[in-house]
Design a protein that fits this description.
Layout (H helix, E strand, L loop, with lengths): L4 E4 L3 H13 L3 E6 L7 H5 L2 E4 L12 H11 L3 E3 L9 H9 L3 E2 L4 H8 L1 H11 L6 E2 L6 H11 L3 E5 L8 E4 L5 H16 L4 E5 L5 E9 L5 E13 L2 E7 L6 H17 L4 E9 L5 E7 L6 H8 L3 H9 L16 E8 L1 E2 L5 E2 L2 E2 L12 E4 L6 E2 L6 E9 L2 H14 L9 H8 L2 H5 L6 H4 L8 H15 L9 H9 L2
Parallel strand pairs: 1-2, 1-4, 2-3, 4-5
Antiparallel strand pairs: 6-9, 7-8, 7-9, 10-11, 10-13, 11-12, 12-15, 13-14, 15-21, 16-17, 18-20, 19-21
The structure holds adenosine-5'-diphosphate.
Length: about 475
């Protein structure tokens, strides 16, 4: 059945991104917004948009009944949940289906199965998928878990089974630290997810985070769209993603992609999903989890394969078969995504708020800015600090990195402090240039990524400018500041 009108149950860049694909497909889109967001582009792009009122997240973007009522009243025949918010919420998914509306995503049972790290591991074990050595049974007694941890061998990772976003996770280096770390993880998990069950995993030293993009059509055909490398993380949150990964040769890539397709087949998946793996330095790879939704970093895959993943999600939800074969999907060139956050990396990553004066003009032809903001908007403390994603392409990694730096120079987002300079420092780091990265990159090279000499100079110039009563002039300090900014 064709989808004619999609309500987008999200905000910011992802709401806009979905709306654009709807427009391309001749589908009407409906956006929703909290009163705090009423001036943001996503609230204005679609022909129809509805206010969720003022209030907390629970009273706005997470108010399931309010959102479903809007969808019914406006005659939407499908809901796209974006990522985060209600995208992996089975209660919401069930309510949407019960209201006679299509949920653009997989089945309730697939979300349920993969939403829990324990149940998903049990299923993966049955399918013969490699898992990190560990314990994911029902027993939660601390003495028992300590004995299991000893069997696994330290360091061990304690993980909340309901976990996400790195919450309820603790690295335990020694036996002595175990009980305290276990209690900490359980407490955090209980607070965040209302469920304090944990599992144990061998803690892999210096691994890489590699994930495979899957999309299954509405007729039982499963496709992979190759890998993304997301090893540049801060506190388990991805900062820069790229594809292809420098860690994979063709054989390893084929194995990881085949394994992902096997998972999709094994759970009779429909729609877009991501298999996350951890890749050990000896090239062993292990299933970490599956995300049953569109990922933040999906654009790098779109850049190298040329497919619009949101379009495929909509076709799959409509029950359609895709018109292409797996062998038609090719990786072409290299793509990088940088997450632009309103935060101050030189001040403990403190979130910054304020009015955006300008976004900046992009001169790199391949660059794509998926932004939730435009000049004049206010960045509020209420929501995620991600302002935009900057995605670039190059015929190879070197060219993609050059384009990434050029694009960062073009994008200013003036008015609020952003992590732009920090991203440039990562991109210019010799180890990053070599492709020698792992999930502790940011932590291990913390000092190298700190404020560099030219930025200290920049600050000195700003102070000099502020102290002088002169207005900015052609050869004055402000001009030098601008030159510094374009290094
Ligand atoms: P969450 O769902 O909370 O994001 P994940 O299981 O997806 O948790 O893991 C998040 C990140 O934690 C990974 O990308 C990786 O950096 C790190 N990680 C997870 N499991 C391990 C492990 N067994 N050994 C080392 N690092 C791990």
């Amino acid at each position: 059945m064709k989808i004619k009108k999609v309500l987008i149950a999200n905000r910011g860049e992802i709401s806009l991104r979905v709306a654009r694909t709807c427009a391309k497909m001749g589908i009407a889109s409906v956006s929703i917004y909290s009163e705090t967001d009423k001036d943001l582009p996503h609230a204005k792009y679609s022909e129809e948009s509805y206010s969720l009122g003022m209030g907390s997240l629970a009273q706005t973007y997470l108010d399931q009944d309010k959102i479903i009522k809007i969808a019914k009243d406006c005659g939407a025949d499908a809901i796209h949940p974006g990522y985060g918010f209600l995208s992996e919420n089975t209660e919401f998914c069930k309510k949407v289906i019960d209201a006679g509306i299509k949920f653009i995503g997989p089945s309730v049972s697939a979300i349920e199965l993969m939403g829990d790290k324990k149940t998903s591991k049990v299923k993966m074990e049955a399918l013969g998928i490699p898992l990190v050595p560990g314990y994911h049974g029902n027993e939660q007694d601390s003495e028992f878990l300590l004995a299991e941890a000893k069997k696994i061998g330290f360091p061990v990772l304690v993980k909340a089974t309901a976990g996400g976003g790195g919450k309820g996770m603790r690295i335990v280096e020694t036996e002595q630290d175990f009980t305290q770390a276990l209690e900490g993880a359980k407490r955090e998990a209980k607070n965040a997810f209302g469920n304090d069950k944990v599992l144990l995993e061998k803690y892999i030293i210096n691994p890489r985070h590699i994930e495979v993009q899957l999309v299954s059509d509405g007729q039982g055909n499963h496709y992979h769209f190759y890998e993304r490398e997301c090893s540049i993380q801060r506190r388990y949150q991805k900062v820069i993603e790229e594809t292809p990964s420098t860690a994979l040769d063709q054989k390893l890539r084929d194995e990881m992609c085949a394994c992902a397709v096997k998972i999709a087949e094994g759970i009779e998946y429909v729609g877009a999903g991501t298999i996350e793996y951890i890749l050990a330095p000896d090239n062993s790879f292990y299933f970490l989890e599956m995300n049953t939704r569109l990922q933040v970093e999906h654009p790098v895959t779109e850049m190298v394969t040329g497919y619009d993943l949101v379009e495929l999600q909509i076709l799959a939800a409509a029950g359609e078969a895709f018109s292409f074969k797996q062998s038609d999907i090719k990786q072409s060139g290299h793509s990088l995504e940088m997450r632009i956050y309103a935060e101050d990396p030189d001040n403990d990553f403190l979130p910054s708020i304020g009015k955006i004066f300008s976004v900046g003009e992009q001169e790199v032809p391949s660059a794509r800015l998926d932004s939730g903001f435009e000049a004049g908007n206010y960045v509020s403390i209420k929501y995620d600090p991600m302002l935009a994603k900057l995605i670039v392409h190059g015929s190879n990694r070197k060219e993609a990195m050059e384009n990434a730096i050029k694009s960062l120079n073009d994008f200013v987002f003036s008015g609020v402090k952003t992590n732009r300079d920090y991203l440039r420092r990562i991109l210019k780091h010799p180890k990053f240039i070599e492709g020698d990265i792992h999930t502790h990159f940011i932590q291990d090279y913390k000092d190298d990524l700190g404020k560099s000499e030219f930025q200290r100079n920049e600050k000195a110039l700003l102070i000099a400018a502020a102290l002088s009563d002169e207005l900015p002039e052609k050869n004055g300090p402000w001009n030098n500041v601008m030159n510094f900014r374009n290094v």
